[in-house]
Protein 1
Amino acid sequence: MADRTVALFITCLTDHFYPRVGVAVVKVLEKLGWRVDFPREQTCCGQPFFNNGLELDAARLARRFIEIFEPYERIVTPSGSCCAVVRHHFPEVLERDGPWLDRARRVGARTFEFLEFLEKTAGFNPAAWRLPEPRKLTYHYTCHLRTLGIRDEPARFLKSIGNVDFVPLSKTEQCCGFGGTFALKLPHISGAMVEDKVQNIRDTGAGTTICNDAGCSMNIAGMCRRAGVDTRVVHAAELIAEAMGLPLGSLEEGA
């Protein structure tokens, strides 16, 4: 029998601010017949160091990640940005270290963003499931998913779920303004960007906004509250778990 084990890379922000997302990922994968391991030694992938040009520190965390996750043939994460770091930026920070570079490439090739894994590896059919009642939703295209070569696939995926009334978001290529430490270093620019993004969400009239990166979710949900935009920002894993009838308990829903 083929091995159906995946390792969950939860990421820092998801772990601390969106625990429901982690629960949803695990329950959906288990419902589809996958065994989910959670390596407790895992830490940050080093994205904040990489984004700030601290490549030696980023390389140190990249090596740690590789050592922890290398035994697994499949690694799944709910974060497109952290997946992009593992797949594309680990080889960059380890490019002068031959043995580690090869290991980084192997681990990167085994690391998938959640929806990417469902579509490309798990063989998940979204049309087989439906929400308990009709729901108007829109979808935020996070920047790092484009780094992974993922563009319209998640939107098409979500449209196929029963009872979904999908409303496309305008300016899909536009960043929400989070950008990691960008939001801290250039708050006025970041704030203007997220205001524009939230206005686009308001224009859809969608009561649910799907966002598959915790940083973007925090930024967008916070501005929605401040601007009085009545939409619930959730991860696709939460929506799919609901469509599959999987309870997520009473964990906080995040920022």
Protein 2
Amino acid sequence: MVNKYVLLVEGKNEKYVFDHLFIHHGIAEGVIGCRVKDGVSKLLESLQQELRASDLERLGIVLDADQDLLARWQAVRNRLAAAGYAGVPVDPNPEGTIVEQEEHPTVGIWLMPDNTLPGMLEHFVSFLGADKDPLWAIADGCLDEIPADRTHFVPSHRIKAHIHTWLAWQEEPGTPFGSAITKHYLNADAPHAQQLIAWVRRLFDLCLETKEEL
């Protein structure tokens, strides 16, 4: 299927989170084509090919900042510069970056979790109300009880263990991120979700639709 509006994400978890946020916020199915790239390296490598698509008008890029937000930002910036984009800012916009270049598709960049902090999708998900639940702190304490020689995840992935532990204690244990939004374990109207959706609406020129819905 050809889409003039395309959103590139690292993995299926990201896609499912966007799918469920879009449903909640009234963004019609099929308006934005969401493409899973199976990791940051493949996403970055595919950028120039995606930008050359003849029908493309607007492209969203969603990546984890991981441990070095500025290094991740520079990696995206370098690839966009190589594709002919001269106006990419030195630093990401905390509200989500949007770059317009004459005779090129409009490009938006969002670095998970919020364009200002190092981290990943799981940090963003935790900001959707999980960190307000008393069980959140208890789950964190459980991780501290694991003996060092039994802790198999790397420190940077602690958030993954944390949020999946928390999800295991919900009414339906082990619910995936997207379904956790639908089941209201996570709050799709939390400030971080509102900020992300506002960026999506600006990038894909859906503001008029928002006003009509209101």
Protein 3
Amino acid sequence: MIRMNNDYHRAAHPEVLKAIEETVMNDYPGYGDDEWCGRAADLIRSLTECSQAAVHFFPGATQANFVVISALLKSTQSIIAAQTGHINAHECASIENTGHKILALEQNNGKITAAQIEKEAAVYYESGEAEFLTEPKLVYISFTTEQGTLYSLQELKDISAVCRKYGMYLFVDGARLGYGLGSCMNDVSLKDFAELTDVFYIGGTKCGALFGEAVVLCNPAIQKRFKSVMKQNGAVLAKGWLLGVQFYALLKDGLYFRLAKQADEYAMQIRKSFEKKGYTFFSDSYSNQQFVIMTDKQAEAFAEKFIYEVDHRVDDTHVCVRFCTSWDTDEKETRELIHSIESI
């Protein structure tokens, strides 16, 4: 069986494991105050061309999401997000558990627009800031989205402009940031994220690391006491160097970006093969997640060789199936799937 239902089903890239192995007999300060976290943070500041950024390493993405939002918002402030956004649809009300309301907007291809955000924000900011409404203070988007789609640079600029207009923070969930950056349709850079957002993160768990996310606080105004909120929420790892060494290994010579780009290229080969056979897609994804509409019978046939995820049922006879390439997907696995597509 070939597993293609997610991008975190194997441990870590050999270079990451090698880097960890080389540190096992050394000793380091705890809680992220070590040379590896320092080196990785400096590298991220260099890659983003954002010298004032504060970089913090988290064990996981859900934790990063709720800690960032907890740190930035007061109890009467809320978050604007897509209905399909991870914080709204996949995290068991972790944000609501921090005491914040999510203002969920209709999405198109997993995305929300600057116009939608402005309309939602105006309900509060242009109505005298009514005391019975929460104040929309943060806009949450994902890159890539839950449907594997990308925000263009212009879309990101437009959303950032609305956030600046109303004094809202822009937060980009980057759990799959690498796959977004590696897409053939992408025109956004790490520098762009640093310039246009207040905070974003570089996902490691789904792109070659054992675990970990690198949260980049671009806005100096939100950096003070941020680590204290991390600590309060159990997000400061005692053996923090294990996070720093992984990100340094992935980023020092561009391995992170090469792995993601390769996964995207395999996904495009798979997509083209499905297209040739007349399959349709749930979203216009040009990253590592492909959402294919197929009959129950076709899905059952693919299940003989592949482990995939049924995203949702389309109707009585069709399902939407997600095939997800990963940092570790190889040419042989890709060819096996393409052969099955051509045969079924």
